[in-house]
Write a structure and sequence with these properties.
Elements: H1 3-10, E1 12-27, E2 32-48, E3 52-56, H2 63-70, E4 78-83, E5 86-87, H3 93-100, E6 103-106, H4 110-113, H5 120-131, H6 136-149, H7 166-178, E7 184-188, H8 196-213, E8 216-221, H9 224-230, E9 233-238, E10 241-247, H10 248-253, H11 258-265, E11 316-319, E12 322-324
Parallel strand pairs: 3-8, 3-9, 6-7, 7-8
Antiparallel strand pairs: 1-2, 1-4, 4-5, 9-10, 10-12, 11-12
Helix pairs in contact: 5-6, 5-7, 6-7, 7-8
Bound molecules: adenosine-5'-triphosphate and magnesium ion.
Length: 329
């Protein structure tokens, strides 16, 4: 490996700093903003070139909002988004369009995200047509090539999305996301709507494509077992915050945050001789409109102390590359 590739692999493709995305809640006769859903409330992480960061957490903790804010489909309330070192937080117009080529999304629901009235060839070539005026012939060649890469037959070109199974539709969605040769793909629960039997096929495809196209992934899931196979590092979210982030091995072998420990203990263990004590959390996830004071996890935390109710713990490095937001450390 040459020196330059080594260097490239180590640099950050994406860095987000203290990102906040609040949804306004309108109320009253004048439709004024009366409160906010603090969907993303201070999230920081980085993803290195070629790496996969898994982002996990329960439903409603802000994973999709984080992903959509990075793509600038949502306006951040505060914080910074750096892509290849460049601040893209407030890009507009043409420069925003340019950067969008480099970042694409694969959605959870391939049924909802593909236009059923459009021929698959057109679905996949649409992003290319939006950014260039290539000839019909070269467009078609590119789409045929993409179909092959995602494991679909050539005649898929002339069919409609509704003619395909869930797994195949997700392959169409992936081909479309690849069309502009992006650097970053945000995959938002890309297999959770699929039959278990096809989930691993689609996951394997994503892994193969990652190698072939030098892709960097933000891989969103609410299930730690899905991200395990995909990720190099894992970030755990709770109520709009990253509570722990580390290399995959460390997250599984040595989870530090009580919330991560509970998530890990919920993964079924195939070997019955291995003892595992399931940690059952009390209560429900509080509302992100009115998050608890101090640590957002304190009302459910088995280890909560006095300071947890008043002081919000910051995400700090406890072991090399292992960051935790918890007063226990
Ligand atoms: N358009 C919106 N307007 C107001 N609140 C929203 C909107 N979209 C999401 N929310 C709220 O923001 C919070 C975070 O939602 P988000 O969809 O980002 O969570 P998530 O982690 O992706 O959940 P899931 O696992 O269910 O996909 C939730 O409380 C949700 O109800
Ligand atoms: Mg979501």
């Amino acid at each position: 490996m040459s020196n330059t590739t080594l260097k490239k692999e180590k640099s950050n493709l994406l860095e987000i700093k203290n990102l906040k995305t609040y949804y306004p809640i309108k109320g009253g006769f004048l439709r004024k903003t009366v409160a906010h859903v603090k969907a993303v409330d201070d999230v920081s992480f980085e993803i290195k070139n070629g790496e996969t960061l898994g982002l996990v957490g329960e439903s409603g903790c802000g994973k999709s909002t984080t992903g959509r804010t990075i793509l600038r489909l949502l306006e951040p309330t505060d914080g910074q988004i750096l892509f290849e070192g460049k601040d893209i937080t407030s890009l507009r117009g043409k420069s925003l369009r340019e950067i969008r080529k480099d970042m694409q999304m694969v959605f959870q629901d391939p049924y909802a995200s593909l236009n059923p009235m459009q021929m698959v060839g057109d679905v996949i070539s649409e992003p290319i047509r939006n950014f260039s005026n290539k000839s019909q012939k070269s467009l078609k060649n590119e789409v045929m090539d993409l179909l092959k890469k995602v494991g679909l037959p050539e005649d898929a070109y002339y069919k409609y999305a509704h003619e395909f199974s869930g797994g195949q539709r997700q392959r169409i969605g992936i081909a479309r996301a690849l069309a502009l040769r992006p650097k970053l793909i945000i995959a938002d629960e890309p297999v959770s709507a699929l039959d278990v039997s096809v989930q691993s096929q689609v996951l394997n495809l994503l892994k193969e494509l990652q190698d072939e196209f030098d892709l960097t992934f933000l891989f969103i899931a609410h299930d730690l077992s899905v991200v395990k196979h995909m990720s190099d590092r894992i970030g755990v979210m709770y109520l709009g915050n990253i509570v722990e982030i580390a290399d995959k091995e460390n997250i599984y072998a040595e989870p530090m945050h009580p919330y991560t420990q509970a998530l890990i203990s919920a993964i079924p263990v195939p070997d019955p001789r291995k003892k595992s004590e399931r940690i059952v959390l009390q209560g429900d996830v509080p509302s992100p409109v009115n998050p608890p004071s101090g640590c957002p996890f304190h009302p459910r935390c088995p280890h909560a102390m006095e300071s947890c109710t008043t002081e919000k713990p910051v995400l700090k490095e406890v072991n090399p590359g292992h960051r935790v937001a918890c007063h226990l450390y």
